[in-house]
Amino acid sequence: MATVSVLNMEGKEVGTMELSDAIFGAKINEHLVHMAVVQQLANNRQGTQSARTRSEVRGGGRKPWRQKGTGHARQGSIRAPQWKGGGVVFAPKPRDYSFKLNKKEKRAALKSVLTSRVQENKFIVLDELKLDEIKTKKFVEVMKNLNVEKALVVLNENDQNVIKSAANIPTVKTALTNTINVFDILKYNTLIVTKAAVESIEEVYA
Fold this sequence. Notes:
Layout: E1 2-7, E2 13-19, H1 21-24, H2 30-44, H3 103-119, E3 123-126, H4 136-145, E4 151-155, H5 160-166, E5 172-176, H6 182-187, E6 190-194, H7 195-204
Helix pairs in contact: 2-3, 4-5
């Protein structure tokens, strides 16, 4: 079992915590991590792009000139793709880009990135993260105390004081234990997790 220091909001060590090897000591599977990221990005695509083919462009019903004898190349419609204002050859149409990964693959990918953060010493455990009021300045102070700039902060409960205090900081994102995902963990350099959230993650994803 890996052992990590537990810090308070001042950045001082107040204890240690043992992490479950099943979650934070798993075998890293880079292929599944890649697939999880691709899936999330694909699922976020709207897929609403669209252009008209030659059959959908208005006009062009009459043959522009006779087939032979003009000296021009033969043409059947002024809405053919080679004409200005013509249709698109292989026009994009609305489609669904999403695909599925099974639950075991998703969990394995998540365990892989959690393990990598622990191994890279980019995993910080806080004894608690509580703010008396919604104040961005106070949250920035906590980040400075931890010597962290870009981080994903994982909470065990929907604490609006903390979430709204972090909302205006572009390099910080907050998430609950049931909403963490591979993409966000990789996007932010450091993973800050409360002690209660670690216990919740170990319980949910064991």
